[in-house]
Design a protein that fits this description.
Blueprint: H1 2-10, H2 20-36, H3 43-57, H4 61-77, H5 81-91, H6 94-108, H7 116-128, H8 133-147
Helix pairs in contact: 1-5, 2-3, 2-4, 2-5, 2-6, 3-4, 3-6, 6-7, 6-8
């Protein structure tokens, strides 16, 4: 199941060829990757990913959890961050990439703690998907304000 998507993520296909279901899976896998960055992947982070997927894609709670489960498998098999994020950068408009960074901050802050590993991964992904540091900082501030 994941082999075809992994080939598309790391191959030479054009961004228009990344089907919506693959884009959903890739973006959700990115959220899983940031949640796992600190070595702790807990129920709060999983629930946050499920809520983000449900809201973003109009999914039921069951379908969002299923998507997250599939994304966990993809994330475990996915290539390095550079090839993984390249397809997202090419296939997703800037405004939506900003929303991805905001979702990543939402997941990182779900457990109430920020680790250096999580911060480092968000900085790397921000750069790799072509979002400015300023916009990433603003995304973090929006998430923090919504939690207050």
């Amino acid at each position: 199941m994941f082999n075809d998507l992994l080939k598309r993520l790391s191959g030479d296909t054009s961004p228009e060829q990344l089907p919506d279901t693959d884009a959903r899976l890739a973006l959700t896998a990115l959220l899983v990757r940031v949640a796992r960055a600190d070595g702790s992947y807990d129920a709060r982070e999983m629930a946050r990913i499920d809520r983000i997927a449900a809201r973003r894609y109009g999914l039921s709670a069951f379908d969002a959890a299923t998507l997250r489960g599939d994304a966990e498998g993809l994330e475990a098999e996915a290539p390095d961050n550079v090839r993984f994020t390249r397809a997202i950068k090419d296939a997703v408009p800037y405004e939506e990439r900003e929303a991805v960074i905001e979702a990543m901050w939402d997941v990182v802050l779900a457990d109430g703690e920020r680790s250096e590993d999580e911060d480092g991964l968000i900085r790397l992904v921000t750069k790799l998907i072509g979002v400015s540091d300023k916009d990433s900082g603003l995304a973090r501030q929006r998430v923090e304000a919504a939690r207050s």
